[in-house]
Design goal:
Chain lengths: 115, 112
């Protein structure tokens, strides 16, 4: 069964450093998303991406964040200058178009730890 | 988006049927009800989606009364591996772009 993959599974970085989280969505999917979940809290929407551009972003997704689909398979989330409060699980998700069920497929997540 | 209310936590034992009820009094005519499951340190996973009456798949059943102001996710004969957080989401069916707004969910603990 196709699945969304994410790398790395765990990233440790120093405050102020740049990180890039990588995702490979399911190949025929057209809509891509990033969510984050701070430990013990709910899953929060960050950004959605369609047709090579951001379609919607939350207030969490400020100028320190960016997303890119550099080729036909990868979908990345960059945090330019990490802060302690960016420590969280980051989930990539994707779904197809023209479907009869609003099923979004999530990756296993990247645990980001900012020291 | 319709606000949802579900119990914070539930406990059950292996082999029992578990019913998790979600209230969504302000559901709109074109809203669907969707349930996701999340295991610790994993991404959410779609379980089931419905609009009215009853929907059943290989994992669960979803019961939606005529007024659609609530819904019940039913898990038959749970096992330890069903220990997870279950989220009820309500929103318009999109057939495509679909930003998900998660609440706190219901933390189900299944005991031996």
């Amino acid at each position: 069964e196709p699945e969304v993959t994410q790398t790395p599974s765990h990233q440790v970085t120093q405050m102020g450093q740049e990180v890039i989280l990588r995702c490979v969505p399911i190949s025929n999917h057209l809509y891509f998303y990033w969510y984050r979940q701070i430990l013990g809290q709910k899953v929060e929407f960050l950004v959605s991406f369609y047709n090579n551009e951001i379609s919607e972003k939350s207030e969490i997704f400020d100028d320190q964040f960016s997303v890119e689909r550099p080729d036909g398979s990868n979908f990345t989330l960059k945090i330019r200058s990490t802060k302690l409060e960016d420590s969280a699980m980051y989930f990539c998700a994707s779904n197809a178009a023209g479907i009869d069920m609003d099923e979004q497929f999530f990756g296993p997540g990247t645990r980001l730890t900012v020291l | 988006l319709a606000k949802t209310t579900q119990p914070i936590s539930m406990d059950s034992y292996e082999g029992q049927e578990v019913n998790i009820t979600c209230s969504h009094n302000n559901i709109a005519t074109n809203d669907y009800i969707t349930w996701y499951q999340q295991f610790p340190s994993q991404g959410p996973r779609f379980i089931i989606q419905g609009y009215k009456t009853k929907v059943t798949n290989e994992v669960a059943s979803l019961f939606i009364p005529a007024d659609r102001k609530s819904s019940t996710l039913s898990l038959p004969r749970v096992s330890l591996s069903d220990t997870a957080v279950y989220y009820c989401l309500v929103g318009a069916f999109s057939g495509g772009y679909n930003k998900l707004i998660f609440g706190a969910g219901t933390r189900l603990a299944v005991h031996p």
